[in-house]
Automatic annotation (TrEMBL):
Gene3D superfamilies: Phosphoglycerate mutase-like (3.40.50.1240)
Protein name in UniProt: Histidine phosphatase family protein
Domain of life: Bacteria
Pfam families hit by this protein: His_Phos_1 (PF00300)
Organism: uncultured Acidimicrobiales bacterium
Length: 79
């Protein structure tokens, strides 16, 4: 049986409506590192990420640990 791991982006630097495509704030970057630590033993696995900056920044630590590049897919932009 296949598994799909879905991860919500870390905390954004700006709230909804304040900025069009904010990245992560310091807490969000720490969240991204923590989820990468948790998922690192499972891979490397294929990764698909939203084109939103906060999502790409959340994926970056896991990409680095696995040595992969996530596929950016606009179809997962807002689920």
């Amino acid at each position: 049986m296949s598994r799909i791991w879905m991860v919500r982006h870390g905390r954004a630097a700006a709230g909804f409506g304040a900025e069009l495509d904010p990245g992560l704030d310091d807490h969000g970057r720490a969240q991204a590192e923590a989820v990468a630590d948790r998922l690192a033993p499972l891979g490397p696995l294929p990764m698909v990420v939203s084109p939103l900056r906060r999502c790409r920044e959340t994926a970056a630590p896991l990409e680095a640990r696995w040595g992969v590049t996530a596929r950016v897919d606009p179809d997962v932009g807002e689920i």
